[in-house]
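Page 37, top half.
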Amino acid sequence: MKIIKASNNEIEQTAKLFNDYRVFYDQESDLDGAVKFISERIRNNESAIYVAIDDDNNGLGFVQLYPIFTSVGMRKMWILNDLYVDITARKKGIASKLINRSKDHIKETGAAGMILETQNDNHAAMNLYKKTGWIKDDFHSFFLWRSDSI
């Protein structure tokens, strides 16, 4: 297994994983839409996507990071927005490896750090984040405003 930065060569594997990720979060399957979305992120260099690929070139998992900035710190930060491991590849340390590759990306880009959010009842994810060195922020509150009903 290898973890690589997704490029046009990995769109098929990444889009399938991305579609499965969305279905996990109760969205309708839309593989064509997933291909378009992932292709646009790669083409426009709007995110950093790392994908775990097995020896047969199958996608095992992916992580997608989006850039933001901290005005107070006057530096770039990243949002770890998407993390998913195929159900057949879980419990093999792939999610931890994807997170560690994300940490390397943060250092490589000179960013201040990265943030993420997860649902309060996603205990498996919270345990993973604690295990990989994340700190739960009880100092700040997270608010959401929506322009539509996503």
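Page 37, bottom half:
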Amino acid sequence: MGNVVNARGLSCPQPVILTLNEIKKVKKGEIIITVDTDTAKENVSRVAKAQGWQVADVQEKDDGYRITIKK
């Protein structure tokens, strides 16, 4: 499993900031981000794509979403 960012319970822009920090840290590979709102899911996906990462998978869970990004 890749690096994991737990952004559940955080309001935007915090999930985006945590995701950007992890992207800068790992440069490439796989990152899994967990969020609990539709807005956070959309914003995290958008910023990942803007940074050149592919949104490989989005799974809806009981407590939110699990977003997998890869580069």
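Margin note: The chain has two helices and four strands.
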